[in-house]
Amino acid sequence: MANLFKRVFSEGFRAFFLAAAIWAILSGVMWELWLGAQASGGTAGLSDLSMPPHLWHAHEMLFGYAGAAVAGFFLTAVASGRGMIIGALAALWLAGRVVLWSSAALPPVLVAVVDLSFLAALVVRIAGQLRKRLNPQHAIFLVFLVTLLVANLLVHLEWAGVTLDTASAGLRVGLLALCGLIVVLGGRVTPGFIRNAMNRAGKPPETLPPHTPRLDRLAVLMAIALPWSVLIPMLAPVVALALAVIHGLRLSRWRPHWALRDPLLWSLFAAQFLMVIGFVLWAFAGWGIGDEVGALHVLGLGGIGGMTLAVMSRATLGHTGRAPIVPGIVAVGYGLMILSALTRWLAAELLYRWYDPLILLAGAAWIGAFTLFLVGMIPALTGPRVARAAPPPPPPTPPHMKSSAT
């Protein structure tokens, strides 16, 4: 058991990907129970909250689940940490979940300080690593982490009674900051993975996904602006629609038909495609066309949920020495995440009279996706690193070739 704990806290992705998946399941079950009680006319079990249950749900999806997933990625890719550092950060993250759950019995300032300390410590850790070895490609991610921290602060300021009507804005800023982060990260990893797959298949260089530096720069600028556009309601739909067009163009040039061959590839494309659709839906909702909550769930479930699930799978396999071949049940989980996003949107937009059963189905699909992820990936997340197999030796030279060579 001691070796297991030592291994889990030896690398950031192990501890935080496990935490993210477990919290996705637990918080999802809590939310499902509350929704079921509400639908049947009963009372819910979320009575220890000082905030409305739907705001707790939104907060924990963004700053609880996604916060852990983001931490696992950056503590592996940017700021490596061992033992005490990862353990301390994990303790801060867990403390945030506990104080939010018990918020009705605690001073709101204490809840805010404890919950905000995790993201603040993560920002300090990553900024310190970047200061030691500055990498402009990594520095841009710090912008999104700081935005996420400020978004969480906006939420807590209202809950503590310091401000009025900032929690809703903070939740939207946080969600769109995560979407912006995915636009930037997806633009780096997705075409690279496709190129690798095509190279292995022997495809000529001219058929590979082209480099699009102008589109990439525009995408980064729009991704940074998107979260803060929430504060200017007239501007937000324009920025969202522009980013949808720009990122949609990028996706179309990354040879998406090649993604169909591999779950680790099509899951990346599916998540980013749903995010583009979510941007469009959210933009139109800002102009009074369509339901905003449905659009936000397409972004949150399909975009953020789908992308984090795919990246956690790929990073776990890669950093434990395993081949980039996802277990079949995890691939089924990718499909459940898509089902969750589409079902939740249908409930809000088209099939309102079946709202209760549809949102319960969406929640069940979310829980199922992460349950399958845990079952399929827990051997890699908790087990030892696997030594990569050496390439096979060249075939022996036939005797007649040896004699002719001499």
Structural features, described:
The protein is mostly helical and 406 residues long. Helix content is 75%, strand content 0%. It has a single domain, classed as Cytochrome c oxidase-like, subunit I domain (Cytochrome C Oxidase, Chain A). The chain has helices spanning 2-8, 12-39, 53-77, 83-101, 108-132, 136-159, 167-200, 213-229, 236-252, 263-286, 292-319, 328-349, 355-382, 399-405. The chain contains 14 helices and no strands. The radius of gyration is 22 Å and the shape is globular. α3 packs antiparallel against α4 (83-101) and α4 (83-101) runs antiparallel to α5.
**CATH arch. level architecture:** Up-down Bundle
One letter per element, helices H and strands E, the order comes to HHHHHHHHHHHHHH
Percentage beta strand: under 5%
Helix coverage percent of residues?
over 70%
List unreliable stretches of 5+ residues: 390-406
Tell me the domain tally. Answer: 1
Shape: globular
Name of the CATH first level: Mainly Alpha
Terminus-to-terminus distance: 60 Å
- Report the strand count: 0
Number of discrete helical segments: 14
Mean pLDDT: 90
Please, what is the CATH homologous superfamily?
Cytochrome c oxidase-like, subunit I domain
Topology-level CATH name: Cytochrome C Oxidase, Chain A
Largest β sheet strand count, sense and barrel closure: none
Radius of gyration from the CA trace?
22 Å
Structural class: mainly alpha
InterPro entries: NnrS
Pfam families: NnrS (PF05940)
Keywords: Membrane, Transmembrane, Transmembrane helix
